Amino acid sequence: MNTKTIINAINTDFAATYKAQSKFLNSGKLWDFCIRTISNPIYMSNIIFANALKIAPVKALLVIYRMEEKPSEDFNFSTYESQCLGALMGFIFQNVFLFKKAKDRCSVNMYGVQTATRFEDGPDIKINL
Predict the structure, then answer these.
(1) Three-state DSSP class for 127?
(2) What are the pLDDT digits (tens) for 80-114?
(3) Which of 55, 58, 73, 122 registers the highest number of CB atoms within 10 A of its CB?
(4) Rounded to whole angstroms, how far apart are CA atoms 52 and 122?
């Protein structure tokens, strides 16, 4: 699997799959951050590994966000942004990586995101560097 395949799938099918979050595509800084992160094979490998360790992909994404963007301590995403992050990670894990089970909500508690889903029963994914 390579990151271009993931990005192509997002550009082709995300808006149709997640209609409520379709305006997230090309919407600005948060979208740009997500695409930069997904395009980075090391970051995507870390997100996949975190999921295997029972850490929701959104939480792993937010850890990368903290390292890269350095938001203020009182920063919070809006409810819509939080939903978009979850939809994007859900799309990748369920529609691109083909994980079969969305597991119970996991605690996140970062930047206004309280919980997120982790995924199980999927193939072993290796991102080509």
Answers:
(1) coil
(2) 999 999 999 999 999 999 999 998 789 999 999 99
(3) 58
(4) 10
